[in-house]
Each structure stands twice: as structure tokens, then as C-alpha cells.
Design a protein that fits this description.
Layout: E1 2-7, H1 8-18, E2 40-43, E3 48-52, E4 55-56, E5 62-67, H2 79-87, H3 100-112, H4 119-122, H5 132-143, H6 145-159, H7 169-184, H8 191-203, H9 209-223, H10 233-241
Helix pairs in contact: 1-2, 3-6, 3-7, 5-6, 7-8, 7-10
Bound molecules: calcium ion (CA) (2 copies).
One calcium ion binds near residues 125, 130 and 134.
Length: about 250
């Protein structure tokens, strides 16, 4: 999968062209029917995108879009994309992007943290650090013995940002922030409010004024790469992307 900003009109044409067969009588399946996430509202009747992310669609606007990198090699023959890429000298090589399987595993591994309870629920000895054994014990409680080993590898891999084999409250907060954002797309103007709610979950209590100040400022140092004082989803995802991970593909 690769993430590319493409003009709305190119995206609309890709969807429309890939679905031409459904308007034939009888309908013709061509195997390239382009699906999209529920943030895109597209009408098969008018062949138009009506809205994206709840905002009116603008064909001239650029939209950050993720799709298989092979589209740029010509698979499924998305002519409008190929023409646009050629005109604008956009090149996507085979090393770009991330394998779909890995992206999906990371996403679900991040989401699993939402089921793991508070930091205190996992940190059984209360020393402020979560070890692999503590993650495993909690995973057995939450998910059962049968899948615990699989879950441990995934959740440790995605949350241990500095790769030292343990999880700190900040690391847990980052992964929960990302997981919450995957579900609710909270990384907008309400980011800090959302982070407060996350702080409450991670600390297992309503954070005190001092807790929040400390945690949020530490979090800002980790996430606010460009120093604007605001944490963007891109910044959170970049931090997640720097995770030193075991190979989850084997
Ligand atoms: Ca511990
Ligand atoms: Ca760590």
C-alpha cells in the first residue's frame, strides 16, 4: 500500500471507470471494482463522489489516498491515475509503501491496546514499567490462553517504540492515541481533549493537574516533531512508523 495525494477528479474517475461493468446489461464483472472506506460517499447512480470525510467533494482538491502500489505499474489499468502520474512525474517504486498484511496487523495490534485496560491493570507489580511477562499475563486474562502468545508479539511490537523490550506509560499512551484515532479520527482540533481522555485511561484514574501537565508535555516532546505545539495525525503515525518491530509476516 502507498499513500499519495491525488486530485479528487482522478480519484472519482478511478472509481467510476473501475465500476463501468455494473451499468451494462447484464452487468459485467472485470475484477477491478474499486472499493473505498466509509469516509468516501460515492453514488453508483450519478457516478459522482458526494463527500469525503463529511466535507463536500471538490474535484480540484488533493486528497491523501492509500491504495496498492501496483496501480502505478498498471495493474487494473487505472488510466486516469497513470496519466496523472506521468504528467506530474510521480514515480512509485517497488520499495515504496508497506505490505498490506503488515499494515493490517499493525492496525489491529494498535487496536488491541484498547482492550487491554489501564496501565495499572497490566503493570501488576506497580513498578511503572510493563514487561513482556506482564503483557502476557494480561493478554491471557483478556483474550484467553489460546491466542495470548500471538497477541503478545503483536502488541509489544507495535507499542515498544524505542525497542527496549518494555512499555512505559508514554509508549502506551502513544499507541492508544493512535488506536483511538484509527477508530474515531480524533486528531483534529480536539486533539488535546482527546489526549486528556487517553491520559485518564492510561493512568487508570482521572489524571491530576500535575499528571496531565507532565504527561502531555512529555507526549508533546515525542509527538510534536515540527514544534508547532499541535500534534497532527501525521506526526503520531510517523512515531508509530518508527517502531522497531519483529517480522510479523512470517
Ligand atoms: Ca511492571
Ligand atoms: Ca520501550
Amino acid at each position: 500500500m502507498v499513500a499519495v495525494e491525488i486530485p479528487g477528479k482522478v480519484l472519482e474517475d478511478m472509481i467510476t471507470t473501475s465500476r463501468q461493468g455494473i451499468h451494462k446489461d447484464p452487468p459485467v464483472a472485470n475484477g477491478g471494482y474499486l472499493h473505498h472506506c466509509d469516509q468516501v460517499k460515492y453514488s453508483n447512480d450519478t457516478c459522482k463522489i458526494e463527500s469525503i470525510g463529511g466535507e463536500p467533494f471538490d474535484p480540484e482538491e488533493k486528497y491523501l489516498t492509500t491504495f496498492p502500489g501496483q496501480f502505478f505499474d498498471g495493474i487494473d489499468n487505472h488510466e486516469s491515475l497513470l496519466e496523472w502520474a506521468k504528467e506530474n512525474n510521480i514515480r512509485v517504486d517497488n520499495e515504496s509503501g508497506k505490505p498490506v498484511k503488515l499494515a493490517i496487523i499493525e492496525m489491529f495490534a494498535a487496536l488491541l491496546w484498547l482492550d487491554m485496560g489501564s496501565f495499572a491493570d497490566i503493570d501488576k507489580d506497580g513498578d511503572g514499567i510493563i514487561t513482556r511477562d506482564e503483557v502476557k499475563a494480561r493478554a491471557i486474562e483478556v483474550f484467553g490462553v489460546a491466542v495470548a502468545d500471538l497477541v503478545v508479539e503483536s502488541v509489544m511490537g507495535v507499542a515498544d517504540l524505542n525497542g527496549n523490550g518494555t512499555i512505559t506509560p508514554i509508549e502506551m499512551m502513544v499507541v492508544r492515541f493512535v488506536a483511538t484515532d484509527i477508530l474515531d479520527h480524533v486528531a483534529t482540533n480536539e486533539e488535546l481533549c482527546a489526549m486528556n481522555a487517553v491520559a485518564a485511561q492510561v493512568l487508570g484514574k482521572r489524571p491530576s493537574h500535575v499528571d496531565v501537565k507532565r504527561v502531555v508535555s512529555e507526549l508533546h516532546n515525542i509527538l510534536d516533531e515540527d514544534g508547532t505545539g499541535k500534534i497532527t495525525r501525521d506526526e503520531a503515525m510517523r512515531v508509530l512508523g518508527e517502531v522497531r518491530r519483529r517480522s510479523l509476516l512470517i
